[in-house]
Fold this sequence. Notes:
With 366 residues, the chain is α+β, with helices and mostly antiparallel strands. It has helices spanning 2-19, 31-43, 173-178, 190-206, 229-235, 237-249, 259-272, 289-297; strands at 23-25, 51-56, 65-70, 73-78, 84-88, 101-103, 109-112, 126-128, 133-135, 161-162, 168-169, 280-285, 302-305, 316-323, 327-331, 339-340, 345-346, 350-353, 359-364.
Amino acid sequence: MKRIFTILLAFVMLFSIVVTPAFASTPSVSNDEISAVRSEMELRGMLEGNLIIDEVFDSEDTPKYLLGVTDKGYIILERKSLVFHESGEQNPYSAYMSAKKYYGGPLNYYVASTAQIQATNEQKMMYDILRNENTDTVAQALFLEREDDAVVENTASVQAIVNSKGEVRVANADNFIRQKAYGFNTDNTCSAVATGIELNYLTLQHNKKAVPDSWRAETLRSDILPRNVTVIKNYYPNAHALHRYLVETCGMRAVSVGNGIANPLALYIKNKVPASCGLNMSWTLSPKAATIKSNIDKNMPVIITTTASGPYKNHSMVAYGYRGNTELLVHTGHYIDIVNTGSGSIQPEVWINESYATYGHYFTLG
């Protein structure tokens, strides 16, 4: 009888393990906070498998955020207000779950550094996960519901090209974007690649000197499919020079977004662009599809940056077309995608859902 009872008890324990999702949280996380994380993850279809909830610190070393992680993805909430900040499929802290974690907004994830490096002012060093470097500065996360701009419905005349399917592309998209060379990204500087593509288009389409003549991008050759940086240097030196100037002189480093693009671009404009061009850029978190489409309608492509969701994660790309209310046409900035049509080389068309755009960078000309 005792053996039968033991077997039954073991069976019940095993069954409970199977049907009840495992759960763990930092002791300081309250029941209300746990409920909020559960609710938000269930809303997004992520409440499956093990659930871990941990506190995450801000730039002031305050445990300001909550990180919820399951087998399906992650979510970050602000503790006091329970405001949603971001979620995605791949937890950026996955390799550092036992470390003290810091958050500086989308694409800014840190952990306490184990490197024996001390700043001159005795500040603690952090490890920037995406940029793979130590730093003594944690970005400050900003929260915006959605950008609050004047563009709700586009009433301006459309200058872009609309095809028979209702798909919209900026004018001369093939000649000035898809068939042009660009920088080769060997150091995670996709933002500089996208900026170079954008600047070259603005120069050619709007007849502005946004790019010096010596750096204007070459047309892709039919006999050369670039697969490494040496080919770019030898056959497309103009495109290579612009990209490296943005990175090395202007400081548009790895995983640059927001001011990480705006500040280097301001230095580039100061050094290389005549005032008569009137080139400027603004950016926002959670860009509206209507605003992106309005810019494209005016033949002004938009640089978007994704985070941890979608087919192109943590990536900056030029959006130069749209269809319907949800899809954007983007230039991936990947040379591996280029195909030879027989008469020339061209970047294939790639469509993504606009909801993947976490940052929007808008350009204007005088």
